[in-house]
Amino acid sequence: MQSLEERSAALRRLEQSALNPVSESDQLSNRVVMLQRLIAPLYRNPSSKDLASMVPDPGIVRTYSAFLKSEDTGIIMLVPDLGCVNNDRIVTVKEECLKYSFPGAGNSFSFRTESHRLRHLADVTYVDDKLRITGIFMHGMITDIGDVPIESVTLLTPGMKTLTAFQPATVPEEVVLIDKKFAAGVKSEQFVYSKEVDPQLGRTYVLRVVAYRGKVVRSAGGFRYNELDYDKRRDAIVAFRVVEIGQDKRLTIVWRKLSETEAPKLKMPAKDPKERRQDDADDSN
User: Fold this and answer.
1) What confidence tier does 21 reach under pLDDT thresholds 50, 70, 90?
2) Residue 24 class from Cβ within 10 Å (0-12 exposed, 13-18 middle, 19+ buried)?
3) Beta carbons of 140 and 112 less than 8 angstroms apart
4) Mind spelling out the 3-state secondary structure of the chain?
5) How far apart, in whole angstroms, are the C-alpha atoms of residue 34 and residue 137?
6) N or C: which end of the chain has fewer CB within 10 A?
7) Most confident of 14-23, 33-42, 53-62, 93-102
8) Phi-psi bin for 219: left (phi > 0), alpha (psi -120 to 50), beta?
9) 163 φ, ψ (degrees, to nearest 5)
């Protein structure tokens, strides 16, 4: 795996080469190098070595061993946000951050990809003692359903009705309005659905995330790419339970994915005619 310094040097070389005329084949070759060697590692899943300091207590794993044998289940650990991420991609080189030098720095997780992720591609992030829905190009809502055993939660459990009945918007203006409503909190029966919860030991939570398909264009080394190509864009409903809170506030969570379907595509207005032509060409592929 390339170090941050090696990636930066390679980016500078590609940026310099972009200033000089090159053939079409050279441009394609440069793009392949960019995507495979420089861009893809930014979106990698952490390895077992990366997560060596975030292994759940073996006793807890044994307690939920039968549950964890079922499909679409898992057990994870989240650490509080330690300020290790300066931006969405670079981890700060501080002593306390060195053991979290992977995307998301240990505080962000995606149930869709079943892995720790960059904060803006994650489903939940543990920050300011809250579990927040932080993903971009995404609808998200979460609620506390109480001290309910995770093994018994289904799509018919009280608290699920609002999640299962929700219809994703397909127009950008409607998406913004709905997002504002959930940011403020939506009450239905005895439950409040919002974009964050206060994680409590022995409580079970349910959430729905609609990670829209579409385009979030990034640029690196003079090359533009769609960041969402490096994510699993799905519409998922998940239940999870906080089973341990450590002295350092680390959370241990067991979870189950209850449903997952293809997410709708949200096409944002193009910024200029050239971009519209490119979008039309991409859509035709």
Assistant:
1) low
2) exposed
3) no
4) CCCHHHHHHHHHHHHHHHCCCCCHHHHHHHHHHHHHHHHHHHHCCCCCCCCHHHCCCHHHHHHCHHHHCCCCEEEEEECCCCCCECCCCCECCCHHHHHHCCCCCCCEEECCCCEECCHHHCCEEEECCEEECCCCCEEEEEEEEECCCHHHCCCCCCCCHHHHHCCCCCCHHHHHHHHHHHHHCEEECCEEEECEECCCCCCEEEEEEEECECCCEEEECCEEEEHHHHCCCEEEEEEEEEEEECCCCCEEEEEEEEEEEECCECCCCCCCHHHHHHHHHHHHC
5) 24
6) C
7) 53-62
8) beta
9) -70, -45
Residue with tokens 């035709």: 284
Taking only the tens place, the pLDDT of each residue in 143-164 is 999 999 999 999 999 999 999 9
User: Which tokens in the block code for residue 10?
Assistant: 């390679």
Reading the block at residue 207, the tokens are: 């959430």
Distance CA 196, CA 183 (A): 8
Structure tokens at 26: 């050279």
Q: Which two tokens stand for residue 31?
A: 């793009």
